[in-house]
Structures are given as C-alpha cells and as structure tokens.
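STRUCTURE:
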C-alpha cells in the first residue's frame, strides 16, 4: 500500500472526527484524518465549555480540541491538512473511494467517515454582506475584543446566541439580544445567566431587517413581528447566531441528505452508501452537542471497523 492509500479516511477535525480517529487508530486500521484550516471546528471558536461530562469547571474550546488531538496522536493517527472538495467512487475497484482536496491531493480509502460539522448561517438581510468584517460578525471569540466599550447587538435565541452574548459582555458596554420570539430557545442555565447580567437587554418579538453604516455598522432596522413596526437601533456591531448549515457540499452527490443538506444516517452512523459513515453536527435530526458528536464519532468508528472486517472476511463473530 502506498502512503496515500488508507483503510479509512476521516474528514473533519472536530470532536466527532477525532473521536473516530482515536478508535480507528486503536483498532490498528490505517487511518488518515483530514482537517481543514479554512473551516475551523466550531469548538475552536467556543470560549468556555462547562457541559462536557468528565471535565468539571470550565475548559476552553481550543484546549479540548488540543486534548482530542494529542490523544489521537498518541495512538499514531495520521493527520493532514486539506479542504476536501470531492469524493468519487473508483470504478474498477467498487469498494474504494478517492478523496480529492482543493490543492488536488488525492487519497484512496476503503471507507470514509464524514465529520465536517456545520457553519454559521447568514441572516440574509441588506447590508450583511457589505458590512461583514466591518461590524458584522459570526464569531464573538474572533471579533469580540474589537468592541471594547461599544454597543453590540446579538441576533438569535438559541444556545449559541446566549453563550456568545455572555462572552461579549467582557468587552462591550451593552449587548442587546434581538430575538424573534418572546422567550429563548437556549438551555435554562444560559438563560438564567443572561437574565441576571446587567449588560444584557432583550428586544423581544423582533427581527433585524437591515444593517446600515458607511464603513462600519452604525444602525440596524428592527422590526417588531407582532406590530410590524420598524425602528432604528444604533449599534457598533452585530453578531449573528441564527443556526447553522451543514458543511456537506462534497457529500451531496454521494450520500442521501435532507433538503437542507444534513446527512441522513441510521443510529449506527451508516449513510445510505455502504462504507460511508457520517458523525457529528452534519447529521440530520441530531442534538448538536460536543458530547453527542463524540458519541457519533465513536459509533461511526465501530461501524467502520465492522464494515472493513466484513469485506475482508476477518470479522470476529
Ligand atoms: P439553534 O438552536 O438552531 O438556534 C437558532 C436561533 O436563531 C433560534 O433562536 C432561532 O429562532 C433563531 N433564528 C433562526 N433563523 C432566524 C432568522 N432568520 N432571524 C432571526 N432569528 C432566527 O442554533 P444554535 O443556537 O447555533 O445551536 C445549534 C445547536 O448547537 C443546538 O443543538 C444547540 O443546542 C447546540 N449548542 C449547544 C451549546 C451548549 O451546549 N452550550 C452551545 C452552542 C450550541 P427560534 O427559536 O424562533 O427558532
């Protein structure tokens, strides 16, 4: 086997990918994990994590990822950088897959675990694209420090919006959360922290209809969904956390997804194509937590190991 041929290739360097990698490396399968520096794991962009079981207190997202990586490397998992663009089934060897990256590196594998997660969704309003990086942001950890003593708006009512709003209070003088309902979707403990934080206030039943400013964000148009009234709201930045879209473009022609591109699997992380597994946030109908991604990664690795031993006739029955 040449260096570029593997038993299994894991695409994605987040909790699901590394968990799969730890298990496959320990199963002594020749495994490559391809991680992208273009699309970072959401965990890298997360500040304090308090709900990962087994880690009392707080751990930073990048520290947790580093721990996953160190553990995987201790079992000699091969890791490389690359942005996967395409996966093609090799015609003359039906059970092999060719994985091609943006810089045209090509890897061959008998099985693939897709674990590329999801990325922040856009709001899709006027001014959003034009003022991106000029006050419009999707990452408080990356950009929060630019808003020291300034007024910012956070859009969304889920876990991400509230967690990021709390983080932004370290820098901003005021954080106004604009949410389209009159209550939050976020977990109760985060809600409680936000409600008692003196720097956070809420603009309920409202959406952001436009983002305005010359070179930087200066104003947003806020629409009350009940009264339909539109008002101007002055701010220096707007952080958008209205959910995610899956990073599955390279998989859309290969496996079954739902209408929004989330990959459909069974409970063993099998996709509709034998030998291709999916784990973590890119799956349809899943709770998108670090711990569930880890569970998915482990499940996918065990299914993958079973699949490979099955096609080789080495299964332990
Ligand atoms: P989410 O749970 O899908 O929440 C998205 C929020 O944005 C919702 O409040 C939604 O409103 C709102 N929204 C969606 N489209 C909108 C639009 N066009 N205009 C205005 N508001 C809009 O997304 P998330 O908070 O990013 O969380 C994603 C997953 O990651 C969840 O499963 C979450 O539990 C998990 N997560 C967990 C943690 C943690 O454990 N601490 C941290 C981060 C994320 P509605 O409520 O009206 O639908």
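SEQUENCE:
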């Amino acid at each position: 086997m040449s260096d570029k041929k593997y038993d299994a290739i894991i695409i994605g360097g987040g909790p699901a990918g590394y968990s799969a990698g730890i298990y496959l490396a320990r199963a002594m399968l020749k495994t490559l994990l391809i991680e992208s520096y273009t699309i970072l794991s959401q965990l890298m962009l997360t500040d304090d994590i308090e709900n990962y079981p087994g880690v009392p207190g707080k751990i930073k997202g990048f520290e947790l990822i580093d721990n996953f990586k160190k553990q995987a490397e201790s079992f000699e998992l091969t890791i490389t950088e690359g942005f996967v663009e395409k996966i093609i089934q090799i015609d003359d060897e039906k059970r092999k897959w060719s994985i091609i990256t943006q810089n045209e590196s090509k890897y061959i594998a008998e099985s693939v675990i897709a674990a590329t997660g999801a990325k922040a969704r856009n709001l899709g309003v006027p001014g959003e694209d034009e003022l991106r990086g000029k006050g419009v942001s999707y990452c408080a950890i990356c950009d929060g420090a630019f808003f020291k003593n300034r007024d910012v708006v956070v859009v969304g009512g889920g876990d991400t919006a509230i967690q990021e709003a709390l983080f932004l209070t370290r820098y901003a003088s005021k954080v106004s959360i604009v949410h389209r309902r009159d209550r939050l979707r976020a977990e109760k403990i985060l809600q409680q922290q936000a409600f008692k934080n003196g720097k956070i206030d809420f603009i309920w039943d409202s959406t952001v209809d436009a983002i305005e400013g010359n070179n930087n964000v200066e104003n947003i148009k806020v629409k009350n969904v009940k009264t339909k009234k539109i008002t101007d709201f002055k701010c220096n930045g707007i952080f958008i956390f209205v959910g995610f879209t899956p990073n599955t473009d390279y998989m859309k022609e290969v496996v079954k997804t739902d209408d929004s591109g989330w990959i459909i699997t069974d409970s063993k992380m099998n996709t509709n194509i034998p030998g291709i597994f999916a784990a973590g946030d890119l799956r349809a109908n899943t709770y998108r937590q670090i711990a569930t991604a880890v569970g998915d990664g482990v499940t996918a690795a065990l299914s993958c190991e079973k699949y490979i031993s099955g096609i080789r006739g080495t299964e332990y029955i």
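REMARK: Residues 51, 123, 155-161, 163, 180-181, 185, 207, 241-244, 287-289 surround NAP (CB under 6 Å).
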